[in-house]
Amino acid sequence: MLAVAEACRNVVATGALPIGLTNCLNFGNPEKPEVMGQIVKALEGIGEASRALDAPVTGGNVSLYNETDGVAIYPTPVIGAVGLFEEVTHALSRAFARAGDTVLLLGDSDLSLGGSEYMRTVHGTVAGALPQLDLKAEKALYDVVLDLVSARKLASAHDVADGGLAVALAESCFNFESASLGGDFELGDPGSGDDFDETEPARTDALLFSEGPSRMIVSTPDPEAVETRAAKAGVPCRRIGVVGGSHLTLRSGGVQLTRHSVSELLSAWTSLERSLSA
After folding, report:
1. Pair 23, 60: CB distance under 8 Å
2. Residue 184 contacts residue 241 (beta carbons within 8 Å)
């Protein structure tokens, strides 16, 4: 379900309505009961999410027996989504467009770190409960964003997914068509209930890197219009900062968590591409 939601959210972030899905389902040896169980659960989840989000599965393929020395790959359902633009001139970029635009976080999610890039990269483990997905909340987010796109109220939109909120904000700073823009953002209180270790107090790493679904970053010159439409639809909406400057600064409760130049972040973000082209 999470893979379907993320694929559709990517389409919505461009300003298009998701209208169909395809897939490539990659698993180990289906003759093993645990692997067959993974396949069954994946199919059930894809079906439930596609119905809830009105995006039918039009086809796909399956790759099985993916194992090395008897050890199966992680269950990997890859989802592709296609969308339809009401008006192609309404298409959005993820990049912040203008200094002075207000940045808002639409949607809400638990701050689980389970299965996240942060857990794998920093702590070297793939573990923990995955963030919970509310399909009704996910669909409500899509409807609000598409309504705002139709009304020409958004300057940019970007989904929160791999790497969490911190990475999504950094990616929103990168503009390959004009000058990149940063901003100073207040992310709020990290709260509690992090699945990394429920006995620990609230963690800022969860606030920064949780990959909880049903969230999108938008920038706009008319934040009141965004707030009004979001409130009407029951979608959480919070102003987190303003576009401008050459640095990305992230705060929690007024405390600065990190500050880096956008050029420095962009260099790190494109390091693999530069290495491959060298």
Report:
1. yes
2. yes
pLDDT digits (tens, 9 = 90+) for 168-202: 999 999 998 888 999 999 998 765 443 434 444 45
| pLDDT tens digits for range 120-133 | 988 898 888 888 99
What was the pLDDT predicted at 126?
87
Residue 90 in this model has a pLDDT that exceeds 60: yes
* First-to-final CA distance of the chain: 38
- Which amino acid does the sequence have at 222? D
Strand duo 237-243 + 57-63: pairing: unpaired
For residue range 202-228, what is the model confidence (pLDDT) as tens digits?
Answer: 578 999 999 999 999 999 999 999 999
Predicted confidence at residue 176, as pLDDT, reads 85
Strand order in the sheet with 76-84: 57-63, 17-26, 76-84
Least Cα distance to 79 among 56, 102, 97 occurs for 56
Is residue 29 packed enough to be buried (19+ CB in 10 Å), middle (13-18) or exposed (0-12)? Answer: middle
For residues 216 and 232, give the distance between their C-alpha atoms in angstroms, rounded to a whole number: 17
| Mean confidence (pLDDT) of the chain | 91
Residue with tokens 């659960």: 41
